[in-house]
Amino acid sequence: MAATVRRTSCNLCEAICGVLVTVEDGRVTDIRGDESDPLSHGHICPKAVALKDLQEDPDRLTTPVRRTADGWEPLGWDEAIEYVASRLGEIQQQHGKNAVAVYLGNPNVHSLGALTHGPALVRLFRTRNRFSATSVDQLPHMLASHLLYGHQLMVPVADIDRTSYLLMLGANPLASNGSMMTAPGFGRRLKELRNRGGKVVVIDPRRTETAAVADEHHFVRPGTDAAFLLALIHQVIADGRAAPAQYVDGLEAVTEAVAEWTPERAAEVTGIDAETIRRIAAEFAAADRAACYGRNGVSTQQFGAICQWAVQVLNIITGNLDRPGGAMIPRPAVETLRFLGRGHIGVWQSRVRGLPEFGGELPASAMAEEILTPGDGQIHAMLTIAGNPVLSTPNGRKLDEALGTLDFMVSVDPYINETTRHADVILPPTPPLERDHYDVIFHQLAVRNTARWNDAVLRRPADSRHDWEIFRDLGLAVLRRTPLSRRKLTMSARLRLSPKRLVDLGLRSGPYRLSVGKLRRSPGGVDLGPLQPALPQALHTKDKRIDLAQQMILDDLPRLRESLVVLGNGDDLLLIGRRHLRNNNSWMHNSARLVKGKPRHQLLMNPEDLACRQLVDGQLVEITSAAGSVSVEVASSNDMMPGVVSLPHGFGHGRPGVRLTVANKVAGASANDVTDPDLIDAAAGTAALNGVPVKVTAVS
Ligand SMILES: Nc1nc2c(c(=O)[nH]1)N[C@H]1C(S)=C(S)[C@@H](COP(=O)(O)OP(=O)(O)OC[C@H]3O[C@@H](n4cnc5c(=O)[nH]c(N)nc54)[C@H](O)[C@@H]3O)O[C@H]1N2
Ligand SMILES: Nc1nc2c(c(=O)[nH]1)N[C@H]1C(S)=C(S)[C@@H](COP(=O)(O)OP(=O)(O)OC[C@H]3O[C@@H](n4cnc5c(=O)[nH]c(N)nc54)[C@H](O)[C@@H]3O)O[C@H]1N2
Ligand code: SF4
Ligand SMILES: [Mo]
């Protein structure tokens, strides 16, 4: 049979690179970048080829399985779905709606079918015990957008292709390929920015791959960025350079709130000297097009909400919001904002610790205690969809134990891993190359407006289900157990609409009046042009104005002032995380192609910190926090700020029953065995995965 070349986009990270897949005899023989993609222009990273590995992985489940005393047993789809629906139904009947909890993991946002049908299924359970990766990730971005712009997903992106000054905090796009900012080929874009005479400044406790290609890099003490950002705002105002648009209110209150955050005061806690802070403020305000961008390192930390608010305020008061080359709001072909709620916070609280919900979800840090603490509303059953929270959320060990105590657990997931090994039933969806793709989320965060529909590259096996079909069938099975009502009829009809039909409706009613048919005629994607100014009309606030003086953030500032005293002076080391280009969160260690090469699981530590503890490079050390401890090799690194150590998350495979043949051989420990569920950003309950106080000692 002749080879055919088919197109799709890689859905493994937020860059959504266009790829060309060569197929011979139903098998993938080549994967490369698609030059015709108007966003990625042929860029790919080493993970693209892993799409083939996922397809061919012998460990990947292709039928539902049930856990029995003698191991995992295959199960027919209909039987599996009926069994799951009836067990979940029984548990809700016995213990109430909240007894069933849901965790939605990261790949949900990368799968079309999960996005179109996952939320519809989850709603049917009517449980308040909903959790997701949001609270170990981008929650502060969404909170800032909800507060300032009236919609949790109206997140401005740095207009990297036109800016002349990019200030980046806590982001390492050269490894992560960019996040909350879809900009495939980030490295090339940075190079072009600098070739235009622009400047890139990186603030990070580690001299990262991104810092290495920037004009300037400054170490910052983990968890103190809020002080740095408030000092920039202070200085911009003090220099008389604050000139927000006429639709912006609250500058006075902000001026008052940042009065104490002089560059000198911020220097004490951040480790960045006052002169540098003053200079960066002046350069940022003077640049004709500047953008400040902060990502994971300034989200998943104790002051993530203040940081993300301050990033916006800095862009706003310097006139860079909504201006080409500043921070702009994408306008995708399917207007994701229209289909998603505007967001809310604190409408209810978690049962045990009283942590606030955000957008209908409780913080993942509360999951284990909600399972383990008896009483009304206790979690007795769990549905996990595309998530491995045992490796991804704070104190994974405790969650690991907690999952073992559930009455029932079901996972929609292709693998038996650290989390799903606790499931009674696993329902595996088709892999990416067997699914249609349109990116509903990441066009909303992209640095250029483009659109791309691709049909599935490979035909799926007869007895398989797409993720949306699993949600549809499970949803219908749940609905069959409820009395006839209008809601039941609407929900059933909604679940039966295919993702393709829903995208088509979204495209037709969107701003460019496209359709799936039109996009199919340009399988390499269509270009809808650079980002355009859209404010204030596009704001979702009631009065179409932006109020900088958000009370919930201002109320949090005293906590910052008080904690920084401790953060700045503690003699513990502060643990931060990191990512590597060839890893993907907790789940792609099973690709032999990706995990080969130099080990990259070690704890990175500055040589001074090693020496004063009489430790040596390569030695096995124990990392201990208030939550737990792990052992791992330490690697000496001059790229680490003294006093800070870095451990990547997503490692720590090889637990009993985990069926990940390659991953189980990868060394390393789970960073989340030491991260602490009690260490959160109090404002919204985001986990502080960075800036965890730890002690590092020799393993005796
Ligand atoms: N210490 C520390 N912890 C962190 C982070 C950190 O920086 N430091 N980062 C956090 C961040 S940003 C995130 S997003 C989370 C991610 O953590 P999780 O939400 O747990 O997501 P993943 O680790 O990506 O796990 C993906 C799971 O989905 C399954 N899967 C893959 N593709 C599909 C699919 O198409 N359908 C279905 N149904 N399942 C699929 C995989 O088998 C795996 O079980 O981790 C967080 N945890
Ligand atoms: N190859 C690869 N790509 C990925 C992923 C992956 O696992 N592997 N995961 C994807 C996901 S789910 C996400 S959310 C994105 C994340 O995308 P990024 O946020 O760009 O990736 P990280 O590597 O987590 O970068 C966080 C940076 O913050 C720094 N940092 C830690 N603490 C602090 C602090 O207190 N202050 C400051 N200023 N910096 C700090 C760390 O040193 C690190 O360099 O990446 C996505 N892309
Ligand atoms: S950067 Fe790599 S993983 Fe991300 S979409 Fe592109 S090819 Fe896929
Ligand atoms: Mo993430």
Please list the strands of the largest sheet in the order they lie side by side: 5-4-19-18-17-6-7
CATH fold label of the largest domain: Rossmann fold
Largest sheet: 7 strands, mixed
Q: Roughly how many Å is the radius of gyration?
A: 24 Å
- Strand count: 32
Work out the strand percent: 15-25%
Low-confidence stretches: none
In the CATH hierarchy, what is the class of the largest domain? Alpha Beta
Bound molecules: ligand MGD, iron/sulfur cluster, molybdenum atom
Helical/strand content category? alpha/beta
Tally of separate domains: 3
- Ends apart, CA distance between termini: 61 Å
* Number of distinct helices: 24
Instruction: Tell me, rounded to a whole number, the average pLDDT.
Output: 97
The CATH architecture of the largest domain: 3-Layer(aba) Sandwich
Approximate shape: globular
